[in-house]
Every structure is written in C-alpha cells, then in structure tokens.
Amino acid sequence: MQSRKKLTWALIAGLVFQGYGYAQEANPVATVSSSLNQSTVENIFDRDVNSSWKVSAADLSSSQWLMFTLTNGGDVDKLTITSKGLSKKEVENLFDIYITYDPMNLGAAVQYRVIEQDKKFVLSFTPKYGAHIRLDLKAGITKKPFELAEVDVSVPKPEEQQAEIVKNRDYMDPNLPTEERVKRLLAVMTPAEKIDLLKESWGIAGNKRLGIPAVMKVEALHGFSYGSGATIFPQSIGMGATWNQALIEQAAIAIGEETKSANAVQAWSPVLDVAQDARWGRVEETYGEDPILVAKIGGAWIKGYQSQGLLTTPKHFAVHGAPLGGRDSHDIGLSEREIREIHLVPFRDIFKKYKYESIMMSYNDYLGVPVAGSKEILQHVLRDEWGFDGFIVSDCGAIGNMMAKKHYTATDKLAAAKLALAAGIATNCGDTYNSPEVVQAVKDGKVNMKDLDFACSSLLRVTFRNGYFENHPSKPLDWNKIYPGWNSPAHQAIARQVARESIVLLENKDQILPIAKDTKTIAVLGPGADDLQPGDYSPKLQPGQLKSVLTGIKEAVGASTKILYEKGCQFFQTDSTRIEQAVAIAQNADIVVMVLGDQSTSESIKDQVKTSGENHDLATLELQGDQQRLLEAVVATGKPVILVLQAGRPYNLSYAKEHCAAIMVNWLPGQEGGPATADVLFGDYNPAGRLPVTFPQHVGQLPLYYNFKTSGRRYEYVDMEFYPLYKFGYGLSYTNFTYSNLYTQVQENGNIAVRAKITNTGKIAGDEVVQLYVTDMYASVKTRVMELKNFDRVHLQPGETKEVNFTLTPYEISLLNEHMDRVVEAGEFKIMVGGASPSFVAKDQIKNSLNYEDDSKGLATTVDYQQNFAAKFDLRVLNIEKDIQDNSCVAHVEVKNTGNLTDVNKIGLFKDGEHYEDRSFELEPQASKVLTFDIEAPAFKELQFVSKYKSVTYKN
C-alpha cells in the first residue's frame, strides 16, 4: 500500500511528541528532513531564533527541499517563517508548498499569500489536510545566502474537538453489550464528528469531547518500521522462504512485543497478496506465489502478532499481486474464477482461523469496479460471505483515485466519498473524507447517514470490543526514542534464525560449500557485500545495526584466513565502477563470494535508486547497473565463485547457473543477515530454505508460476523451452534425504489421509521441507496442473527417519464447476509428496508426466476417489416486520446448507418484479443463517427472494 509509511525517509531529526495530540500545538511537527545541511535542519524547530538552518547561494543553484512530518494529521492552514536575509518578495516566489498525506504523491502546490509581521513571514492558504508538508526551494529566486531560524506550522483542531465534553457518557459502561455501546455513542456524535473519526492520522485520532481513544498504528511487515531502533527482521519474501510457520509466529510475537513497547496497537500488516509477476517491486513484501503458502505463513504472522492483544490489518484486499506487466496496481482483468481460486484464498482462510478485525483494501478493481467503491468485494464477499465485522482501511489515496486522478468513476471528492462510504470503508488514508466539501456535505445532510453510521460503527465496534475505551493503550510515538525491548538479544536471535532458515541454496557444484574455515584467502566482492539491504518498510537505521555479509564472514573465519574486499560496482548506477580492481582481488584469492542483487532499504537513506520495493518495478530481470558485467569478469578469472543473491525478487540467473560454483539466495535478510549468511557459507547452519517464487530463465516467460493451467496448444517458445530456471519449492541441502512408504487412504467422511516417511541419508543433521501437491486428473472444468496443499519443515539427524502426516479435506480438493458452484467430483487424484514441486514434461498429457526423478526428490501415487460433494441451499421467508412509524419493513429469510460441502451463494430481492437488493452468504454443511433485508417503503404487492437455483415468494 501507498501507506504514508514513506514518512520514514523524514526521520533525520524531530521533536518529541507532546501530549495526547488533541490540543492545538504551536508547532505540531514530529520530524523534519532536508535535501541539504541535514545536521542542522532541526534548528528550525528548536524554538531558538539564534540557531538556524543556513542556505548558501551555491546551494540554490539547484532546487532544494524540506519535509515535515506532523505529529497528527490535520488541516494545515499556514506556516510562519522566521528568517534572516529574505525579503517578502523573495518569500512570495521562493517556495512551492505541498500538503500531503503521502509524500510519494505530493499533488498540486497550494497557493499561498504572504503577510510580513513582527519580522516574521506568515504564509497562509486554504486549509488542506495532510500529514506531511514539503517546502520546495526553487533555484534562481535569490542569489544571496539566507537562514531559516524557525518554522511554525498551524493545524487548527476541528470545532467539534473544542466543544464542551459530552456529559452523558453511558456508552462508557463496559458492562453494556458492545452493540448497545456503539448505538449510544453514535446517538451523541454530530455528523461532523462522525466523518472526522474516519480520517487517518497515524491510526485513529480519537475524539476528546466524546472520550473516543486514539488507536495508533505502525507498519510492521518485518519489524516496527517507524522511528529508529526496532529489530529489523528478514523481509516477508524471506519469511516465506523459511516454509516454517512456527518460526514466523515467533518472529511476529517479537514484533508485537516491540509494537506494544511503543504504545501502538495496530499494524498495517501483513501483505497477503499472491505474487504472480517477478517484475513487480512489491514481490519482496509478499510470502510468495502460492495462495496456500501465503495463507499459512501469513496466518502464522497474524496469529503471533494478535497473540499480543494487537490488531492486524492484512492487505491489499484483493487482487493486488498480479499486476499487468508487473507494473504496480495495473489491473489485468482477472475473472471471478481466478480471483476466487487464487487471490481471495489467503484472506479468507486466515480470517476463518484468526478473525482479524481490520483489513486494507487495494488500489485495484474487482470485476471492473475499483475496490474503493466495490460493494461486491467489500460487502458481499468480505462481510456477507465470510462474516467479517471489523473495519476497512483505505489504501492511501485509493478513495481519491476514483476521480480523474486515476479511475474516472467519481467526478469529485464528494462523489468518491459517497461511493467509499456505501462500500463500508472506515479509515480513510487520504484527503477525501476530510476535504472541506465532503465535511460540509455531511453537515448539510447530503451524505447517506446510514452509510456513514455503518462505517463509524465498524470502527467503534472494534475499539469497544478490545477494551481501548477503558485501557487507553495507545500513545503518540516519540520518533527519537528507542523503546524498552527494542532490538533485544532475544529478538536479534530470532531475526538471525529467520534469516538462516530463509536462505535457499540453488547450486552447489562438487559440494564446494560449505567453505573450509581455514581457507587461506577469500575475496568478498559486489555492491551488497558490505551493504546489507534490509528491504522496504525498514525504519531509520541505527549505526552498525545492519551486519553485512562481509562482517559475517570476517567474524566466522580464523585469524589465518585473509579476507579481501572490493565493491566492484554500484547496485544501479554505472559510475564509479571498479571492475578491474575486483578482478585483481579475485585473482589473488582461493575462492570468491560475490553479493549481488537489489537495492531496497530504509527511506531515510537518500540519493539511492531502489531496484525493489513499493513503486519500484522492473522491466527486466537482469542484474541492474554493472553487476552482470562484474559477475562475468570475475568468473573469467577461473576462480570458484559463490554467488549470494541478496534480492527481493527472482532475477535471471541463467549465466550464474552455468558458470558459478554455487548460488544461494539470502533475500533481504534483515539486520542479522550477514552472520546468518556466513553461518550457511561455512557450514555452521545447514540450509533448508525453499523457493517461494519461481525463478524464470528469461523475463519473456513472465508471468510464470508453478500452478498454471493446461495449454490449448503448445507450452514452449520458438527460442526457449517453457521450463523455469529454478522451480517453486526448490532448494538444496548439505545432506541428502529419501522418501518412502507413501500411503493414502480415503476416509468415510471424504478426507484423504496422506503419510510418508523421510530419511536423512547424509552425514549431518538438516531440515527437509516436505511438500504435499495434488492434481485433479480429469474434471468438468480445466484445473491447474498441480496445487500445493500443505507442507511441514522437519529436522532429521543423520540416519533418522520421521513420518509426516497430512489430511486433505473435501474442501481442499474441491473445484469451481462451470456454474461457479464449489464441488468435489469423483475421479482420479494424483498425490505427490516431495522436497520441491514435481517435475513435468511440458507437452501433451502434462498431468500424466508429473512425478519426481527418484525417491530422493519425492514420491507420487494416485487415488481413486468415488465420493461427490456439493452444497445444497434451501431458503424460506421467516417473517416480514413492518414499522408503521418510519414506513419501512425488514424481511427475514433463512438459508440452510443441506448439502455436504461449504459454498457461497447470493439471494437477490425483487420487489414487485424490480431488483432491490442482494445479500451473499457462505455456509458450511448443515449450517443455517438468517439474512435480513431492509425495505424502506413497505407498499408492495410481492417480494421474491431468488438464489441461484431456488426462489421463494412473499405476497403482501
């Protein structure tokens, strides 16, 4: 999400938060950063006119900038500048002022007027909502030096916040039912307070008059990412590569502990997108390309974080992981079948298990309608089908995107706000709900109050339910404080273990790894060798916090081993390349470790071109800058080269596969990534990570993922075979495993019991990631060639054998038939258990070819499944309740699943033959549910309730 997490690039200096954030502060700025003289920029907020931020004439030969991050977002209406050396005319022309909630999307500069008073300049403008202020200093306006001594920011608090505190606070009684408390609080809220509650200001700002507490949030994909000093864990793609649910749960518990220490209670995390295009910069934020892997690893993260009494906000709901051409948020126009088979799976499965109470919607569309205005996905699927009763957060700017800015489905902010409220979006990360025209429309009764009340109630319900009114757990963050427990030795150890377990060994020719610790000379080369990249959504880095691969190697070897280092080139730029020097060093070494890959790090680090992360997509998958040239030049020396790919996505490693002695991927490994990588390089840890994404031979193969569907013609290209370079689920070990005794049994309830034995036939202990795949051989619709259904990471001593057991339920082997009904069709299923996804021959009869090369890779068998499963829905009208006073009625319709499989359905209400409303639902076998339909005008002759296959009629 474009979630104002980019504030972390403004963490050079700042002020400590003051108070709870309700009162108007003279200068409500949390942090400030600049394009120059960063060591003194904090002087403009130190309340001392004798200290200043100085700008020389030479500095303004090009444009410069200042960026302020506000303690609390609000409607900024003026800046007061105390300066030396500037005239009023120069001030009128020097600045472009941007007020924004998202520093990556500044919007248009505000038009300001200047008044000079008391040796200060007051720059005033029409109030504009934002959480960041950027001042661009334009080149050529003045040719003389000047100083900025102080800058005061005016953020008037809303009128409602200044009003008298409400006396009747019966909703504060914790003994009342939650819904009653919500109802009573809504009754005393003004319309303006309701829409103000929905603005986003580092979370939910709260309301002092009403006693509504603030609910502060953070981004926490791989650690608490605001401020500086929290533990930086491996990026999400590395977590996915561990295939270890218990370990990721442990990491999320640690992140939760650090969140609580900083007095936040909500994480806009994790990302549950299924990544289907390696060019997409946000692959690094995901757990991989398979919905089950994402569901299990993402579920472990949510389970761990929520165990600390915190809120998670998984994102981006939904259909965000398959962007057209790999370009972020470019919709590919997926069908409902594809969406339900892949992209909804992690969100649904995790909600069913762990009941997250908040969710972030995406920039994408759902069946052609922007998600920000889609009742189908946000109401019918999320709430009606799954039973979600929490609150929906907008991705930053997503509501505004419905205007001409992006989607052209709303003519102005009021139209966009109405669509979003009707879809049930509560927290608006953006400037739509709190724009003056929308707030005024709310006050004037021009916004549907029922929609507004629904959005507010969804948020208040969660706040009441979690006891925040009573406990007040949230406090504004002190951006300059390292909180107790941050980066503790225990958390460092977890970060190192996640990094170790994430490392995937792709090549190990002639068992060159592990490297002997008494090797005489090791050359460590490459832009990533001494520049560990932690990934996007990292906080401002503490000095020495990131331990590089070079550092890890130096710590691992003895005094007799000589370590030679040369960067060789930059990650992206092609200037300052020192390939000749790198080659010379390689020629003097016994073995070469090269660390190449992505540049993806904290936004607090300036003047770097990121090659991965949010808004950093690639057109190719070639190593950027001069990295490929460096690799080839060093390989040409004839020295054995160990390539460490430090990256957030797959790259084209075709050359490396042929020419390197070994290849490993350590992803974006977090602060302990260097020592963890050295652990694997020198054999102190036996690698067992598995690829969570497919590595293609060439970018032209994309999109390329393992669970594809069969082709109507051919698979290969004229100039390239279809196969990937490294397949999903693949990874090597320093030991060997064999599989035996694959056994399956179809049970009476339709479950399939699967078990297999795995033996460590090598000489050292190690982990094997046992993966269960299923293929539906023949079906009424085209199914995927294979699908991951479960996995288990097991540890085996040399010679040890363990049995792994899985259970496949009917739902797990079901499909969506031609009518989009979920069914299990009797027939043949292929069951495959192994250490990677099965191999295949990409020609006719591709499913028949699925298998493992030998029992060291895995085993396959078939099951003759003779049971059928499907839902069967009955419906009946229970009653129609009429309310004479407000001329309305409520219809109650019971639906029951008398079948033997969970499925979804929809009931459409037709009033005198005209379509009136739809309600969706999902029911397990033998379960029932009562659906309610609110009918505003009861003057009707007939109501007809129509499901896919049945209907019932009520005559008035």
Automatic annotation (TrEMBL):
**Which superkingdom heads the taxonomic lineage of this protein's source?**
Bacteria
Q: Listed GO molecular functions?
A: alpha-L-arabinofuranosidase activity; beta-glucosidase activity; xylan 1,4-beta-xylosidase activity
What SMART domains is this protein classified in? Answer: Fn3_like (SM01217)
Q: Does the UniProt entry include the keyword Signal?
A: yes
Domain (Fibronectin type III-like): residue spans on this chain:
768-837
Q: Does the keyword Signal apply?
A: yes
Provide the alphabetized UniProt keywords.
Hydrolase, Signal
Give the signal peptide range.
1-25
Q: What InterPro entries does the record point to? A: BXL, Fn3-like, Galactose-bd-like_sf, GH, Glyco_hydro_3_C, Glyco_hydro_3_C_sf, Glyco_hydro_3_N, Glyco_hydro_3_N_sf
User: GO annotations under biological process?
Assistant: arabinan catabolic process; xylan catabolic process
Q: Which family does it belong to?
A: Belongs to the glycosyl hydrolase 3 family.
Protein name per the record: Beta-glucosidase
Species the sequence originates in: Sphingobacterium corticibacterium
